[in-house]
Design goal:
It is built from five helices and eleven strands. It is α+β, with helices and mostly antiparallel strands and 243 residues long. The N and C termini lie far apart (73 Å).
């Protein structure tokens, strides 16, 4: 066995490329087969190295070309059954930090499903993070260079930040502000840092001027989760009141 052979098979919606032989300078068939798979709708691919004997730097280049093609098409490419001596070659050229390597084909295939589950969880978390609760409560804020706090009003809040109205806004974009506010009954009194990410333009949103968008800065996960709970609890209450 020497010359690289590439055989394609389908496992559910995933394309599996069974490689056998040497992955070297004569590996153009791999690049071509990956291109064919992408053209035929297979964006998720696994290269099975079960029968690969040798891989050299030229072969690594062919893999890199194929991998980049998959990524450019919005797909995912993983490598299964990678032997220890081949992992060492990946390691030497630092591709073990780029490629996802798995001990078996089953593990590689299962990882696609795991990623789908994780992606759905992350989407739900993202939706939670950006729910905005209208408010009308007081807030104190000041920049790091100021000694005294100014008074303002929170117009809305989410898990990632808030919109604050004040009679005078002199802050600049990117400026770090210390803020104090109370969200009753929980999480209660908060002293946290925020960064100015948006300044309301008078000619665009005159009804909000002067106001600024603040993003929480270095907020710990526990406090953020409490703010999420505060937002969701009050949104649910508002919905119930409307009903």
């Amino acid at each position: 066995m020497g010359m690289l052979e590439v055989n394609f098979k389908k496992v559910k919606l995933i394309g599996v490329l069974d490689l056998s032989g040497h992955v070297d300078i004569n590996s153009s068939s791999l690049v071509e087969k990956v291109g064919w798979a992408l053209e035929n709708g297979y964006k998720d691919l696994v290269c099975d190295f079960q029968d690969v004997e040798i891989i050299d730097y030229a072969g690594m280049s062919a893999l890199a070309i194929a991998y980049k093609n998959v990524i450019n098409h919005g797909g995912r490419m993983k490598f299964a059954s990678v032997a220890v001596h081949i992992r060492k070659v990946f390691n030497l050229v630092c591709l073990d930090r780029v490629f996802e390597l798995y001990d078996s084909l089953d593990t590689a295939l299962r990882s696609f499903e795991d990623e789908k589950i994780i992606s759905e969880i992350q989407k739900k978390q993202l939706r939670r993070r950006f729910k905005r609760l209208p408010l009308d409560i007081g807030i104190e804020f000041k920049s790091k260079k100021e000694d005294k706090f100014q008074q303002g009003k929170v117009l809305n809040i989410s898990a990632v930040g808030m919109l604050v109205f004040a009679e005078k806004v002199t802050c600049k974009l990117g400026e770090i502000l210390d803020i104090k506010l109370t969200l009753r009954p929980s999480p209660g009194f908060l002293e946290i840092e925020t960064v100015v990410v948006w300044l309301v333009e008078k000619n665009i949103q005159p009804q909000l001027y002067p106001a600024m968008g603040l993003e929480f800065y270095h907020l710990d996960n526990i406090t953020q989760e409490k703010i999420v709970e505060f937002v969701e609890r009050n949104l649910a209450r508002n919905t119930a009141d409307e009903g």
